[in-house]
Amino acid sequence: MRVYFDNAATTALDPEVLKEMFKVMESQFGNPSSIHSHGREVRTLIERSRKTIAGLLHTSPAEIFFTSGGTEADNTAIRCGIVDHKLTHAITTKLEHHAVLHTLQAMQKSGVIKLSYADVDSKGNVDYDHLETLLKTNDRSFVSLMHANNELGTLTDIERVGELAEAYNALYHSDTVQTVGHYKHDLSKLKLHFMVCAAHKLHGPKGVGFLHINHKVKINPMIYGGSQERNMRGGTENVYGIAGLAKALEMAYADMDSHQNYIQDLKSYMKAQLEQNVPGVSFNGETDPSKSLYTVLNVSFPEMEMADMLLFNLDIAGISASGGSACSSGTDIGSHVLTAIGANPDRPSVRFSFSKYNTKDEVDYTVAKLKDLCAVVI
Predict the structure, then answer these.
(1) pLDDT in tens, 1-44
(2) Would you call 80 a catalytic residue per the annotation?
(3) Out of 80, 197, 327, 374, which one is annotated catalytic?
(4) pTM score, two decimals?
(5) Are β-strands 89-92 and 282-284 bridged in parallel, bridged antiparallel, or unpaired?
């Protein structure tokens, strides 16, 4: 059996999305910046896709800008938001994706900003009181806190952060890559200035995403070139990808409740089976469904011989997952997220992430293999 439990890294392309992309590839090849009929036809497709996405998110099409994915969108929001608004202080956590963390740390290193880290607890929850203290004791800040942690699954209350950001006149960016298409975002109510999406996290194509920029915020482009994306992102648009992204998000919204119930049931089932079959197993991050991303389960296994081979052995058994351990020193390579929450560096951890295509049979097979692999404990 071959099992794919790494959906937080990327998801399988939905056949209906592929079909939509093929349709465009076969008949609509014009450059959307051209003024002739072939170009206008493709321009119409892009704007129709933008309108579809904006409608689902309850925002204006003018606030959606297509990008190459989440990393570019995060970098644009952070770099341009900070520089163009002349901000000198930023707040994040040590749990953020490297697209956010490395960008902010590079800006700190070059002297553009002072960077502060909001405290988190052992499950990855943000200390909102500490966040408010940081906002209160610094000049206007740039806040970057992700909606759901990609390793732990722990959710951040983006409504609460938005309220705090508004109260202290801060700009708020959230890396929402793991939650767009999995939760409904109403941008007419959320007090977000920037949010991002990567299509491949919701059964869409790789290499395309979008950045939402609230109309109250004006920034300059990060990528200059032509006048694409209303002068905000130079470069000929990824037309096929944009069509696939719009289709994927449309399908995600149509079946979101049923998929959430199905996947949450799978996650709960796997958690219960691991607890019954693997002595000493525990879990990193929140597992309360109201506080945790339903697609992610981060499992901490007992100390064992050749712990660093656990993922490799799962792969040999046909099971794809990801993970690692906390850094035990300043020199070894490990998970910066697990280190930040104080996880035991001697316990190997595996992130299992689920999609609508996974089954309980796959869970049973995986748990059986893990039971065997964890039998030899130090």
Answers:
(1) 999 999 999 999 999 999 999 999 999 999 999 999 999 999 99
(2) no
(3) 327
(4) 0.95
(5) unpaired
